[in-house]
Amino acid sequence: MSTETIRGFAEPHPLFASRREFLRKTGAGFGWLALSAMAHAESATRPQAPAAGGLDPLAAHTGHFGGKAKSVIWLFMNGGQSQVDTWDYKPELQKRDGQELPGFDKNTGFFTGDVGPLLKSPFQFPQHGRSGCRVSEIFPSMIPHVDDMAFIHSCFTQTNNHSPALFQINTGFSRMGFPCVGSWVTYGLGSESRNLPSFIVMYDTLGRGVPKGHAQNWGAGFLPGVFQGTALNVQGSPINNTDRDPAMGDAQQREQLNLLRRLNQRGQGGAGGEDAELAARIESYELAYRMQTAAPEALDVGREPAGIRRLYGVDEKRCGHFARQCLMARRLVERGVRFVQIYSGGMDNERSWDGHVDIEGNHRQFAGETDQPIGALLTDLKQRGLLESTLVVCCGEFGRLPVSQRGKKPGRDHNPHAFTTWMAGGGVRGGVHHGQTDDVGHKAVVDRVSVNDLHATILHLMGLHHEKLTFRFNGRDFRLTDVAGEVVRAVVA
Amino acid sequence: MMIRGGAATNQEPSGKSFWSFQPLHHSPPPRLRGFSWGVGPIDAFVGKALEEHQLQPAPAAPRRVLARRLFLDLTGLPPTPEELSRFLDDAAPDAWARCVDRLLASPRYGERWCRHWLDVARFGESHGFEHDTDRPNAFHYRDFVIQALNQDLPFDRFARWQIAGDELAPENILAWEATGFLAAGTHATQITANKAEKERYDELDDMAATTGAAMLGLSVGCARCHDHKFDPIATEDYYRLIATFTKTVRSDHEVPTDPAAHQRAMEEFRRDHAVFEQKLRAYEKDVLPSRLEAWERTGEAPAAPEWLTLDGADARSKDGATFARQADGSFIAQGKNGDFDVYTFRVRSPVGRITAVRLDAMADPSMPHRGPGRAGNGNFDLTDFALAWETPGAAQPQPLKFTSAAATFEQSGLPVAAAIDDNPKSGWAVDPRFGTNHSAMFRLAAAFTNSPDTTLIFTLKFNGNNQHNIGRPRLSVTAAESPSLKGEQGSMTVAEASEALRTPRERRSTEAQARLLAWFRTQDEGWKRLDGERAKHAAREPKPDMRRVLVCSEGLPAVRLNTQGPDFYEKTFLLKRGDLAQKQSEAAPGFLPVLMRDGGRGEGWTPRPQSESRTPRHRTALAEWMTDVDHGAGALLARVIVNRLWQHHFAMGIVATPSDFGKQGARPTHPELLDYLALRLIDSGWSLKAAHREILRSATYQQASMGDADSARKDPANLWLSRYPRQRLDAEAIRDSMLAVSGRLDRRMFGPGSLEETMTRRSVYFTMKRSRLIPMLTQFDGPDCLQSLGRRVNTTVAPQALFLMNNSQVRASATVFARLATGSGSRPAAASVRDAFERALARPPSSEELSDVLTFLERQSALYGGADGRERAMTDFCQALFGMNDFLYVD
Hints:
The complex is a heterodimer.
Chain A (H helix, E strand, L loop, with lengths): L18 H6 L19 E2 L25 E7 L13 H5 L19 E4 L8 E2 L4 E2 L14 E7 L6 H10 L9 H9 L9 E4 L27 E2 L18 H17 L9 H23 L7 H7 L7 H15 L4 E6 L14 H25 L6 E6 L3 E2 L2 E3 L8 E2 L3 E6 L8 E2 L1 E2 L6 E3 L4 H11 L8 E4 L2 E4 L14
Parallel strand pairs in A: 2-9, 2-10, 6-15, 7-8, 7-9
Antiparallel strand pairs in A: 1-18, 3-12, 4-5, 6-14, 10-14, 11-13, 16-17, 18-19
Chain B lengths: L40 H12 L10 H13 L5 H8 L6 H11 L1 H14 L18 H12 L4 H14 L4 H6 L1 H4 L12 H21 L18 H9 L5 E8 L2 H28 L1 H11 L8 E3 L4 E4 L4 E4 L5 E4 L7 E7 L3 E10 L22 E7 L7 E3 L1 E6 L30 E13 L4 E7 L11 E6 L10 E3 H10 L8 H11 L4 H14 L7 E8 L19 E3 L7 E4 L15 H4 L12 H9 L7 H17 L20 H13 L4 H9 L12 H6 L12 E2 L2 H12 L32 H5 L18 H9 L1 H15 L6 H13 L5 H18 L4 H14 L2 H4 E2 L1
Parallel strand pairs in B: 2-14
Antiparallel strand pairs in B: 1-15, 2-13, 3-6, 4-5, 6-12, 7-11, 7-13, 8-9, 8-12, 10-11, 16-17, 18-19
Helix pairs in contact in B: 1-20, 4-21, 5-6, 7-18, 10-11, 12-16, 14-15, 19-20, 19-21, 23-26, 26-27, 26-29, 28-29
């Protein structure tokens, strides 16, 4: 049952193999699996792992052409970071503070009744690095890294509302039901990790909630569930079902699994059986058993030396929560995890980067939560030689308006027309500033970069061709980039 | 013959001659030459293909294996030891057929097969997006599917009702519940004005794409931006299809559960009630006039209340709300709740002076939080309150001016005075005092004295906030110089009576006399007694049993979630490249031309317009086309559903892509068999149970899963069914089986679902909240409820093993199971082990297995030590049974 040919295509499916091939494959990873009925995947076009014979969809692949980046750490500035207060310095905006923005469509943002005039950034923007990059004063720890970072100032999206915009930047579609970037990447490349999920998501641990749109942001859509993100639980054990019944010790569980193995080998699909899927299931208990210890170890930042903990700010009240997650991310990519996404901020307005009220206070707070950990992450990855193979991406779901949202302390409303994304490591050309917004930072105007383009670029850096990475579902070959997308060559080293 | 798996070639016919768009072909069952096998046409078709591929069918599976296969297939639960013996001990030749019939008649059948259809229907019970708001009335759709399957509702009707049940069978609540199919998709919230139309097109796409994929196996959504690349569906066809749903909205609608029963009860009631009415009328005619005469002689006069209620008003709403007049003179607003409604009340003025008018905004269960407003929180926002008068022949109404206003309660910042100021946006509101009556009084600048033919015109505007309209208004007037809101309110009839009494009886008009009697009778003890009896009986009027159901229809109040846009746009346009900025012509509702034969029957499918119809009946037309075998899409509909049945029985359909019967999809391995099954379905009156029965009685179904070595080598994917395909149980069957085997399963059917993983009802009763999918179901490849899913993937991953090893619910079941198998203390261990095997795997252990387990129990008990070591060891063994391939797979 596990060896079926692909409907509609002459090539055998890469995910099917004989038992012999399966047995040749050793040292399988966390999500090792046999994928028998690739139900709708009559055609799944993705790179094949030549050595593995393709039985294990999470077996590591080199991609279509071998990219420099092996892992991704995506730092998600949830709620929408203001480009004009962070990375997109606009002298003209400073000058025109308090003036109306001619021709501005008051329906652009969310609070259409509170539209104010242009609002200058409350922050200073000193110059740094070889590139003379202007960096907002709220990011002191990132200053040493600006020559490693590539900035795309001309990103734009198509919706002005959090959850559709989150879906769009995560899946390429503003509707629900499509696989996210992390799922596509693990589908395309498998995982280097042993005993760990290949795609891990972390969100706010201070009780401020999950990103709007919830788990759909890291869902696998129509891809097999094995490719979905594993969101670490904030309470209890971080990964479901890794704690055994307290009444049961390791010895007892070992004994129980031995019995199970014996019974399974005597039953259908046991010894001498030709069924690779049944054999895979028998093996999966051993993998699960090993995972129980591997996962807690990987996530235990207490094992890091004091110097490293200090570097990230693990024990700082201001940023400790995000620092722990950044440090965990490093430990995970070090162990071969393919994709890590960390959300800064929670769900409700003002409990994330969603600075509708008091943009200055809001962004000072969230920069304070993230600046030191991100700076430390870049430093740490670099000193370990991991930055070359780790693509760090940082952006939110959209930008914010250059005009104020009126209130006692002015804020900024949502802006789908412009935001800045920066990337570092993993084959990125550092010190690049690509694209421009208009004089006040309202709309991307030069070298505009769509979400599809951003995704094409991330896939490219991972060695995946965005037009070739497809999955057929309900009669259509889907791509992360739908029918669009161009690699932003300027940021590729 | 076309081969499943064969690539589409240039030579293959396209357009209407493509295989799936052709009419159903009747092929006589072929005769087998190579071997003698089978019991009917299915086996003949399958056998023929086996012959052609030099394959032999596998022998029949052992009866125990068959029993477990059948129980899990039809009910999603393994047989109990009793059920198993009943079948095994039945030596009659039709034992199998009767076992099939028993299980098809079991309510468990609907619960099992419902889930297959819910996948296809992308069924979810929340809106998704920003806050993933719950849909508390969505579960009725799930219950509809269970009932439809259990009752063997003909599949064509099943399909039609899901598109237009409210139009086709409005008297049947199941038909209303069926429209939950269209409603089941996601619905964006927090939509700003600029995005509303795009979201609406996405929603129309969801309805059309799901209908296309689920019923016809067609990916119509591909034609949204360009003509379909592979299938003959033009962009224009797509927009005509979605135009069917132009005005279709989700609504939480109250539907009578059994209108016929209510009708019968009402007829009986009316018969009884007429007696009371007759007695009263007779008293009024024969006794009351003389009683009035006697009273008049006493010279008494009626005492007028301070406020006279204008209960005879003609009430109108700008946005189409209707008003139901209540006995107390108030009006309950019903139906459409417009965004910014305007109410107008016209009433013949009572004779005399008017110094002030009064507006009561009354609480009522018809409103959210019992009102008094119709907004979601129960509030209203009265921005303008105006009064004018007119006489017949006058050019236009004359406005009256108010000087001041007072109210029983005013929301902070929204005082009642704002309703009579010059600002059209400022108004009176009552947050947070909901669920109670509020009153306002408006004093006239000068007392108004009117003549008998004057009409008063009250205008109430609600211009401040969407849908903040008063739900139960009542208007009164007073002649008092310093009126109070505490003053008594009474009917206008008192005033009229006083007026009539001024004229001596001999000169009184008939009309005035009637008005006087109308008042007098309310004073008369005899009349009051009879009227009291009548009212007492009236209160016993049978009320229809109502159920609030999430439906999809037109002309009903839409479920709204913080949108700045309308519920729908009046017109659907053909969009170039799917771009809203490139609207072409308006798209008229239509069908897919590729599925219209003999020029189609557009006129025939489209019902005659009914002027009083609430809905445009475009959905009825779509449903008629969909199920029309001869001229419409019915042939494909039949092919697609029998293929889905086949897929669930054999792990793979005759067409391997169950929701894609287009060019990109697979070709049927057994095209003649597919058409045979489709024709049989239609001939049986679209009975799914008949189709199950025929498939299950075939020798093909009853083969062993282990074919000969030849079969595995020549047909590794089992395309030709040279053996029964072994399958892993789906997520629901795994969980439900563990609960059933351990005796923990709660078999209560229907009703609201649960999000608690500790729930012990069947998994189909988990609430499908899109942001909180049940982890266990997801881990075992359950659906994400976002897009129509015709076939689940089947993965084998370590997290599934972790679940079986460590999950607390699995442990709980194992613990209870262990106690059940252990029985009383005196039972020997071997007997307990045998019992556990029988319950979990429907077979006894082999001697090697028994010995393995007994050895394990000894060692594990010792490892645990202590008094409960034995019990824990038994639990560990029972849990290990759940982890066995023999438990997780069906042979």
